[in-house]
Amino acid sequence: IYVDYGIPKAVIPAEALIRTAKILSIPTYKPFETHLQDILTKLKVGDVVFTEIMEYNEETHEGIAELKRKPTVNGGLISLDEGEVRSVVSGFDSEGFNRAVFATRQPGSVFKSVVFFGALQMGWTILDKLANERRLFTFQGKFYFPRGDHASPYDDVSMLWAGTKSENLATVYLTQRLLDKLNFEEFKELMGNLELLPLDGENPRDFHFRVAKDTGVQLDNQGIKEAMLEKAVEDLKPDLIFAGRSALYKDLTNLWWGRGYVTELQRVYRMADDDFTDRERNLRIGLVKKNWERLTGLSSELKNDWARLTTKVSEGGADAALSDPSILSLIGRFRVTNAGGHKPSLAYVKELTGEEFRRGPKDTSTVIDAPVGRPLNSIDVQAIWGNGGVVMNEVNLDGYLPVRYYDRIAANIDEQFANVMGQKDQYALYQYYNHHDFKIILGLKYLTQLARAMGVTSKLEPVLSFGLGTNDVSAAEVSKIYQTFANGKTYRFYKEGPDNQMNFIRRIEDREGKVLYEPEKKEFQLVDSCYAAQMHEILRKVVTHGTGRRLRGELYMDYDSPEGQTAEEAAAALKAGIKPTRVGIPAYGKTGTTNDYTTAYFAGFVPYPTKKDEPLDTMAHQYVIASYVGFDLNKSMRRGGFRISGAMGALPIWTDYAKALVKELKFKDFFDPKTGQYAGAQVWPTVVAPCSTPLAVDLTGGLVLQGGGDNDGFEFTNFDKEGETFHDEFARSASVRATVNVATVLSGGARTPRRAFQPFGRVNGDKNGPKLIEGKTGESQAGSETTAPTLPVMDGDQGAAKAPAPQAIAPAPTPAPPSPQAAVTPLPVNSAPLAAAANQDVISQGSAAPTQPEKKLDPARKTEEDAGLQNDELW
Question: What is the value of pTM for the model shown?
Answer without folding.
Answer: 0.82
